[in-house]
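Following up on my earlier thread - several people asked me to post the actual chain instead of describing it. Fair enough. Here it is, all 249 residues.
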Amino acid sequence: MTSYELLRFDDWTSPVPPVEREVLSRLVEGEAEHPPLLFVAGPGTGAWAFAEHWLPHAAGRGFPAYALTPRADGDLRAHVHDLVQVAASLPRQAVLIGHGAGALVVSHALGRYPARAAVLAAPAMDRWATLGAALKANPFGTLRRRPRLNRKQLFGPDVATADDYLARMTFERRLVAPHSRAGLAPVLVVGSPDDRVVPRKSLDRVAAEYGGAPLMFPGMAHALMLDTGWAEPIDAVLDWLTKELTAVD
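Reply from S.P.:
Thanks for posting it. Predicted structure:
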C-alpha cells in the first residue's frame, strides 16, 4: 500500500478538522490568459510572504495569483488537505508553487490534485541535508524543540526589513515525511547555491528525482520571495511556465 492510499484512508476514518483558511490573492483584469498560481510556504510563514512581491508581480504578468497560509500546528496531512481543497476551489486548474517546507506539501499534493505544473522553491525536502546545513549555520536555534532560523539563514544582508519579516515567522514544528514523485505535472526546482537552509546537494538531488536540474540564483538567501533580488526568480518561474504550458497546450 502506498503512502497516498494510507493518506486517503486516514482522511476517511479520521477527517482533517475544518479551519478557516487565509488565502490572499492578486487577480488580473478581464479574462486571464494564464492558469492561476497557488503559492504555499512552510508552517510558520503566512501568505503575506508572497503578497509582498510575488503575487502582484505574477498578476502583472497575467497570472492570477493566490497564496495560502498554513494552518497553525497542522501536520503534513492537514497541510496537503488544505492545499488540495483550495486548489480545487479555484476557477481553473492551478500551478502549485511551494517554498521551503511548503515544497514538501506541494510534492504530496501532486498525488491528489492534477496540477498544470509545480514549482519547488528552495525545497526543504531532504531532511538530513537540511538539518546538517541548519546545524552548521545556527546550532543552538536548530536544536530547540521548536527550531528557529536566524536572520542570516533566511535573508541576504541587503534586506532592510529582514527583522520585521523574521518577527512574523512562528517556526512551528517541522514537517517530517519522505516526499513524493507522484503525478504527471512538469516540475521545476529553483534555489540558490548560497542558501544556508537548503544545501546545493539537496537542490540537485530533488531536481534529479523530478528529471531535471535546479534553476540557480547565486547570491540569494533562503527566502527568495523576500530578497532584494526577488524579481529574478519569479520572472524565471513565469518564463518557464509560459514556455512549458504553451508546449503542453
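The two ends are 34 Å apart (CA to CA). That should answer part of your original question.
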